[in-house]
Amino acid sequence: MRQKLWSDWLQLTSLLKAVVGRVPAAWLSGSFLTDKPVPGDIDCLYIVDVDDVQAAMADAGRARVLDVIARNGVKSAFNLNVDSFVLEWCPASGAAGSAPPAYYQQRGYWDDLWVRYRDPDPRTESLPRRGFLEVTIDGYR
């Protein structure tokens, strides 16, 4: 099953690259990266340069495909077992760079979401207990 899921992820990554040109990296998470015998899918946050996203959004066809990938519609639209989202990467220097605050909020959201273990106790849920894997695809430039 993992081989099929990985094939689905590679196919989706190729499709996204055809739409936006370059994909610097992806964050992978979920049961695919655990010892679960039969994971259901791969959870993926693609990190794409904001300029490449805006260029793709200027073309109606590319914009439709990007929207499906960015909003987790891949399973129904393309029959690929990937939960996918897109983070628009805003290159900025330094830890408190010049990127818009919304960028830092979104990046922090995904980091926080994927390191926490879901628990009904808010105090327990807030503790980091798992992680994600960053895969460099085309690299940051």
Automatic annotation (TrEMBL):
Xref: InterPro entries: DUF6932
A Pfam family per the record: DUF6932
The protein, known as: Polymerase nucleotidyl transferase domain-containing protein
Organism expressing this protein natively: Nostocoides veronense
